[in-house]
């Protein structure tokens, strides 16, 4: 009997120790995606003013998915628990040490809103219930912004055709096409001196051109298709971020295809390179130039 008692006591002790280990491990594992906004995490809330169920993250996610069981969901108690977070978050709290950027589109693209370390609050009107991805420490330099956002400033656009990106049009695309909507303000991406303004008109035969030369970089940035501001003149100095045009369809066949063609050309050049029907690239890939100016090419 004493032997049996010892065996039972040992088993009971082992079970107690095992229970202790499990009880210690649970909070550690729960700290990752447990629906509690812990230090070091970025958290979405289902409702405005940081209310409702929480979805917490420690790293970037480029696509939340939209169906269970594969989507990222709200895990904390409260309204919204169990729902997929894509296009469903209303507020956020950044408890990490890095800036976190919330994007309108998947793949870390489109209009965005930054949450600095410690910041909490509502998503803006564009992103509320329209959140599709987020990024910790956005931009490889830590300070770059997307050129598709900066061209339209507070109302970002999207790249519709990249450099040398023609897929059905014959020729080699010499610039980057960015679109938002007709009438959107177009901002200068780089400071410089206006060396050419051609106002054009709507329709395929009315190409407009704005050429701005930056002497420090010895590069010209050319904007096509948008309607130049009435005050813009040759010889005028333009600052980075200044409104220079409104999006239109000057030299484009229809308003539905409105966009701004942005082209970097080496040296002081007044006209864009030919693209349609031209098999040769006259401009180098502009990615390194745009990066040097503080932009991500997206």
Please explain how this structure is put together.
This protein is α+β, with helices and mostly antiparallel strands. The protein folds into two domains: 42-144, Crystallins (Gamma-B Crystallin, domain 1, Sandwich), CATH 2.60.20; 149-286, Glucose Permease (Domain IIA). 13% of the residues lie in helices and 29% in strands. The protein has three helices and 19 strands. It has helices at residues 2-30, 147-150, 287-292, and strands at residues 42-47, 51-57, 91-94, 100-105, 109-115, 120-122, 133-136, 145-146, 158-161, 176-179, 185-187, 192-198, 209-214, 219-224, 227-228, 237-238, 243-246, 260-266, 295-296. The chain has a seven-stranded antiparallel sheet with strand order 9-10-18-14-13-12-16, with no helix packed on it. A four-stranded antiparallel sheet has the order 2-1-3-6, with no helix packed on it. It has a three-stranded antiparallel sheet with strand order 5-4-7, with no helix packed on it. Strand 4 (100-105) and strand 5 (109-115) form a beta hairpin.
């Amino acid at each position: 009997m004493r032997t049996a008692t010892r065996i039972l006591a040992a088993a009971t002790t082992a079970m107690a120790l095992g229970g202790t280990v499990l009880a210690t491990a649970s909070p550690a594992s729960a700290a990752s995606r447990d629906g509690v906004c812990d230090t070091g995490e970025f958290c979405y809330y289902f409702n405005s003013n940081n209310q409702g169920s929480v979805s917490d993250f420690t790293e970037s996610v480029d696509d939340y998915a939209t169906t269970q069981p594969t989507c990222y969901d709200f895990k904390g108690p409260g309204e919204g628990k169990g729902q997929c977070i894509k296009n469903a978050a209303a507020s956020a709290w950044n408890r990490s040490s890095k800036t976190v950027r919330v994007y309108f589109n998947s793949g870390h693209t489109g209009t965005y809103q930054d949450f600095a370390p410690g910041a909490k609050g509502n998503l803006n009107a564009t992103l509320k219930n329209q959140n599709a991805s987020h990024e910790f420490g956005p931009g490889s330099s830590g300070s770059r912004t997307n050129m598709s956002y900066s061209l339209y400033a507070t109302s970002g656009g999207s790249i519709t055709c990249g450099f040398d990106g023609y897929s059905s049009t014959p020729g080699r695309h010499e610039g980057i096409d960015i679109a938002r909507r007709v009438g959107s303000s177009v901002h200068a991406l780089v400071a410089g001196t206006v060396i050419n303004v051609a106002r054009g008109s709507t329709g395929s035969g009315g190409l407009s051109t704005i050429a701005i030369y930056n002497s420090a970089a010895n590069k010209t940035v050319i904007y096509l298709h948008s309607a130049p501001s009435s005050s813009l003149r040759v010889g005028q100095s333009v600052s980075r971020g200044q409104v220079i045009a409104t999006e239109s369809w000057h030299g484009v066949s229809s308003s539905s295809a409105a966009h701004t063609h942005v082209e970097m050309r080496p040296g002081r050049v007044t006209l864009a390179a030919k693209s349609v029907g031209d098999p040769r690239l006259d401009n180098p890939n502009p990615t390194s130039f745009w990066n040097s100016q503080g932009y991500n090419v997206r």
